[in-house]
Amino acid sequence: MCIYMYICIHIYLYIHRCGYGKFMEEREERVERARKEYEAQQEKIAHLQSYIDRFGAKAHVLKSP
């Protein structure tokens, strides 16, 4: 049985002190969390883009008080 699992994703090194089954569960949770974060970012981008499309270059609307 494997005690330590090392995985490198992009520039990060993850060390897991568990078996392969637990490692895969944690990996799936991490992937799901990243997917939800990505979807939230895309919704925010779409919202901001719709705001920009509505008001365009009207500087008086975008001024801060």
Tell me what you see in this structure.
The structure is a single chain. With about 60 residues, the chain is α+β, with helices and mostly antiparallel strands. It has one domain (about 5-55). The protein has 2 helices and 2 strands. The chain has helices at about 20-55, 60; strands at about 5-10, 10-15. The chain has a two-stranded antiparallel sheet.
Secondary structure: number of strands: 2
Distance between the termini: 63 Å
State mean pLDDT (0 to 100 scale).
82
Strand content: 15-25%
SS content category: alpha+beta
What is the helix tally?
Answer: 2
As laid out across the biggest beta sheet, the strand order is 1-2
Please, how many domains?
1
Query: What letter string, H or E per element, gives the SSE order?
Result: EEHH
Poorly predicted tracts of residues: none
Largest sheet: 2 strands, antiparallel
Shape: elongated
Instruction: Give the proportion of residues in helices.
Output: 55-70%
Taking all Cα atoms into account, the compactness measure Rg is: 21 Å
Short description:
The protein has 65 residues and is α+β, with helices and mostly antiparallel strands. It is built from two helices and two strands.
Main traits of this protein?
alpha+beta, two-stranded antiparallel ribbon, 62% helix, elongated
How are the SSEs placed, and which strands pair?
Layout: E1 5-9, E2 12-16, H1 20-55, H2 59-62
Antiparallel strand pairs: 1-2
